[in-house]
Model the fold of this input.
Amino acid sequence: MDKDYDEKEPVEALNGMRAICLGNEIQPHLSNFVEGEGWEDSTTICKFEEPSCWRMTQVDANGVFEVVVHVQGVIEDKKLPPIRGELTKKKMQHIRQSITVSGLGSKAFGGDFDATKGTSEQPMLEMSNRIFTPKVEVPNMNPAKVDKQMDKNGVIEQTNAMDAIGRKKTVRISPQKLHVGHIVDIAFSMVAFGKGNELKARLLLRNIMLLDATHTQKWLKQKAKNQFLSVKSQPMLRQCLELQ
Done:
């Protein structure tokens, strides 16, 4: 985003949507979760297989479930399907989809950022996951069916046909509809990968929901308008120089 993006209205809209989401008990908000009394005592870090990792879990009447929380923010960057270009087998094992959000200076978002124990002058949260999982790590996992909007060039489908790597992630909205400046709700879990004392924590992307796209549209219109005025003023400037 640049100087043409008016941050005032998006911040107000973000804070309003966050306030609504705070009251959603079905989709627990990050700040509600960490500020809840006794959450640490009710939470257990459990080892999972396929793939091997440590996950934050809780228990209810239905049994053990992984903790998934929500946060709202403005998209600063995204790396989402469809995948372009050819991929080697080595690259397939590491390619990720990710999204980075900020609060554009919102104090409320800053509080959400602090809940993740993050440290930065400009609070941002990045959630990601691997698009492909080596079959050796998930021998019992079946490939997921991916919507054609996510795989218009067929890279994921071809990878699955190679029987080398299993697909595991899919979404219900077209990633092309998400742009920098959009306000979104992101569901994520907190996991750790590695062995022994070499564990690395990661915010694992679960779901992205578009909340508001109007501010990006205003930004692009203003940007186009400024570019038009800049181009239009150049001939006038040359005419003035010729008269002089």
Remarks:
- The longest strand covers residues 200-212.
- Residues 32 and 208 are 19 Å apart (CA to CA).
- The radius of gyration is 22 Å.
- Confidence is low (pLDDT under 50) at residues 161-171.
